[in-house]
């Protein structure tokens, strides 16, 4: 099995890449994994910005329809969308100057992974940020 992001990179994204996380696919549905991971990110001090076509507010934070609509810098882009859309989101993360991209469990696009890393961003793919926070004892 190929690993897309080792413990050092995972820890770096979670602790040192920055505190503003855009969560693509985050809605106000508490049954969704994105909602639960966003809660966990908030507990460890991250600002979680929802990115969803409906652009609703979640956890008290204004939502935006796309990464390009966010009017302030974003450090990490956490992706909870279908793999067929993920590569485009990674390219948008590069375009807005994010420092890292995180594709959640089962979100896979190897070409996007390679492009993102070649652009100089940290990148993790097919891993749960929520589970990694717990596994690494961060929160």
Description:
There is one protein chain. The chain is α/β, with parallel strands linked by helices. 36% of the residues lie in helices and 15% in strands. The longest helix has 14 residues, at 83-96. The chain is globular and about 35 Å long. The termini are far apart.
Share of helical residues = 25-40%
Distance between the termini: 27 Å
Beta-strand content: 15-25%
Number of helices: 5
Could you give a short account of the major beta sheet? 5 strands, parallel
Q: Return the string of H and E elements.
A: HEHEEHEHEH
Descriptive labels:
5 helices, 36% helix, single chain, 139 residues
Blueprint (SSEs and pairs):
Layout: H1 7-15, E1 20-24, H2 33-43, E2 47-51, E3 76-79, H3 83-96, E4 100-103, H4 110-118, E5 122-124, H5 129-135
Parallel strand pairs: 1-2, 1-3, 3-4, 4-5
What is this entry, summarized?
This protein is α/β, with parallel strands linked by helices and 139 residues long. The protein contains five helices and five strands; from the N terminus they run H-E-H-E-E-H-E-H-E-H.
